[in-house]
TrEMBL record:
This is Glucosamine-6-phosphate deaminase. InterPro entries: Glc/Gal-6P_isomerase, Glucosamine6P_isomerase, NagB/RpiA_transferase-like. GO terms for cellular component: cytoplasm. GO terms for molecular function: glucosamine-6-phosphate deaminase activity; identical protein binding. One of its GO terms (biological process) is carbohydrate metabolic process. It comes from Pedobacter yulinensis. CDD domains: GlcN6P_deaminase. Residues 8-228 form the Glucosamine/galactosamine-6-phosphate isomerase domain.
């Protein structure tokens, strides 16, 4: 794992965007299509904003997102598809954008549909973060499974995860935060050839320390990144503050 520490969130986001651009250009030179899975969270804002400075072959990219709430209104700004649509997917001409539907009449069928799309478009790049509870996507400690046989699944969000959504300013109080979500599983995320993990902020310092310094365990879902051969972890001084 390549651990990179920057003085500010802005510098972190700029560096992560530059690395992403380099990887997309490399892949575009050898492949007709590049498959990318994006995270939707305020922690990604600086990274997403800096992508606009690069002239990339966006029309080579098939875009996915890694999780979605179940039951929010279709136009809710907190929806992860909507978050990425506003900040990224409508800014460039992607080859394809594949959305998870949190309002599907049959959530199990929606999991299978999205899993099939992922199978047809094996991930080249995953752009992720780490949650305050150490989650990857919505694989919170109670439901994280490093050997999950599903590619996409329905999960119940733990209280720490739901509180983070309030702390991030996405919801006014925990009662507004959905209790269920769709998420790509940890094996689905780890299949990517390259993982860019963007983790700014003091609120993430304990999760970062656990991910890097604890043994690999589902109590610390992000600790599984230790096993991946090609991860760039972008930290700022705050998120790296507890590392020894």
């Amino acid at each position: 794992m390549n651990i990179k520490i920057y003085e500010s969130r802005k510098a972190l986001g700029a560096a992560a965007a530059e690395q992403f651009a380099q990887e997309v250009r490399r892949l575009s030179s050898i492949k007709n299509q590049v498959n990318v899975i994006f995270a939707a969270a305020p922690s990604q804002n600086e990274f997403l904003a800096h992508l606009h400075t690069y002239n990339l072959n966006w029309d080579h990219i098939n875009a996915f997102h890694m999780d979605e709430y179940i039951g929010l209104p279709a136009d809710a700004p907190q929806g992860f598809g909507n978050f990425l649509r506003e900040r990224l997917f409508e800014k460039f001409e992607f080859r394809s954008v594949y959305y998870l539907n949190g309002n599907a009449s049959d959530p199990d069928a929606e999991c299978l549909r999205y899993a099939q799309l992922l199978a047809e478009h094996p991930a080249d790049i995953v752009c992720m973060g780490i949650g305050e509870n150490g989650h990857l996507a919505f694989n919170d400690p109670p439901v994280a499974d490093f050997n999950d046989r599903q590619a996409v699944k329905i999960v119940q969000l733990d209280e720490d995860c739901r509180n983070q959504q309030v702390n991030d300013g996405c919801f006014e109080h925990i009662g507004q935060v959905p209790k269920l979500a769709l998420t790509l599983t940890i094996p689905s995320l780890l299949k990517a050839d390259f993982i860019s993990c963007v983790v700014p902020g003091k609120a993430k310092a304990r999760a970062v320390k656990n991910a890097l310094e604890e043994q690999i365990d589902t109590k610390y879902p992000a600790s599984i990144l230790q096993r991946h051969s090609n991860v760039d972890l972008f930290l700022d001084r705050d998120s790296a503050s507890l590392l020894t």
